[in-house]
Amino acid sequence: MRALLFALVLAPGLALAVGRPSEMLPNPAAEARAQEIGRELRCMVCQNQSIEDSEADLARDLRRLVRERVAAGESSDAVRDYVHARYGDFVLLRPPFNWVTAPLWALPVIVLGIGGLVLLRMRRRQAARTGPAPLTDEERARLAALEKEL
Amino acid sequence: MSGTKATPLSRRALLWVPLGVAAAGGVGFWAMLRGMRDGSYDPRGVPSALIGKPAPRIALPAVEGIDLPAFAPDALAAPAAPVLVNFWASWCVPCVVEHPQLMALHRRGVRILGINYKDKPADAARFLARHGNPFAALVADAEGRAGIEYGLYGVPETYLLDKGGLIRWRWAGPMMPDTLSAELDPLLRRHA
């Protein structure tokens, strides 16, 4: 029973792994690193899939390139930079922060800021509408004294 | 207090803000649709990362069975006149559509270096025999290596190199007659 469960849990992973065994690196750690890099690279043909998920020709070429460079011992950043230098920001599924993408990253902050300002103004206006605080005993006594003087 | 006087005016102005945003969005959307129809805007288009950078140096062999020389990577470093680098394949239907434009450029004396992308040499030879040869030199990119170096994402794709060997322009997809007149010709004049 336990063995069956174990097999069921592992089955999806195995199914994925045997999908294209010829492409995979023999070293599992290197293969895992290559997959991690590939999952963050966009397939330029299908545009909404990573190169790991896509069956497009170009995605296969890029997968092979990533694996060759990983096998040669290049760091993950170096491999990513290599593809980024040739395909531009769009190839990275997580866009980098630079002056072109700055509006993209800044937009949520700006919207939040505007919302905060609107809230602040609303609250301030409401506070103004409630009017002044009631007079204290001391003030009331002074008022009575002034009225008596008139 | 002056604030009490200003408030109704700024509030009235605020009413126009949503209308203004909607109008600006509408104009932008209209411009996008118009651009998509006349082909000047492609929502899936991605600018090349190599604009203004030197062309990739990659040594490739000549295509077997075609009587055209290969070009050395150094040939792209400082050409005598602007050159075009054209990726094409015999299996690519848009390449057939583009071919008359390449032939026209060739007749006008523009130097076109061909990169035959993931093709069978015999098929490539048949293609050129049938449609004509616009290339001054031709290399085979059987594995798609040069494609990755150029940041290629399909064929045909064309790159314009200036006399300094820098990539000035990239056209993804087939160049049509109006692509030449509207885009390429002014650039060829500017970089001549």
UniProtKB/TrEMBL annotation, chain A:
Signal sequence residues: 1-17
Protein name: Cytochrome c-type biogenesis protein
Pfam families: CcmH
Keywords, sorted A to Z: Cytochrome c-type biogenesis, Heme, Iron, Membrane, Metal-binding, Signal, Transmembrane, Transmembrane helix
Function: Possible subunit of a heme lyase.
Keyword Iron: yes
Family, as annotated: Belongs to the CcmH/CycL/Ccl2/NrfF family.
GO molecular function, one term: metal ion binding
All copies of domain CcmH/CycL/Ccl2/NrfF N-terminal, residue ranges: 7-146
Any GO BP annotation: cytochrome complex assembly
Keyword Heme set for record: yes
Organism: Muricoccus roseus
Residues annotated as transmembrane: 102-120
One annotated Gene Ontology cellular component of this protein: plasma membrane
From TrEMBL, chain B:
Recorded superkingdom: Bacteria
Protein's UniProt keywords contain Membrane: yes
This protein's GO CC annotations: outer membrane-bounded periplasmic space
Matches recorded under InterPro entries: Periplasmic_diS_OxRdtase_DsbE (IPR004799), Redoxin (IPR013740), Thioredoxin-like_sf (IPR036249), Thioredoxin_CS (IPR017937), Thioredoxin_domain (IPR013766), Thioredoxin_ResA/DsbE_sf (IPR050553)
Pfam family, one: Redoxin
Domain Thioredoxin residue range list: 49-189
KW Transmembrane (keyword) present: yes
Alphabetical list of Gene3D superfamilies matching this protein: Glutaredoxin
Keywords for this protein: Cytochrome c-type biogenesis, Disulfide bond, Membrane, Redox-active center, Transmembrane, Transmembrane helix
Principal location listed in the UniProt entry: other
Subcellular location: Cell envelope
GO biological process: cytochrome complex assembly
Family according to the record: Belongs to the thioredoxin family. DsbE subfamily.
Protein name: Cytochrome c biogenesis protein CcmG, thiol:disulfide interchange protein DsbE
Organism name: Muricoccus roseus
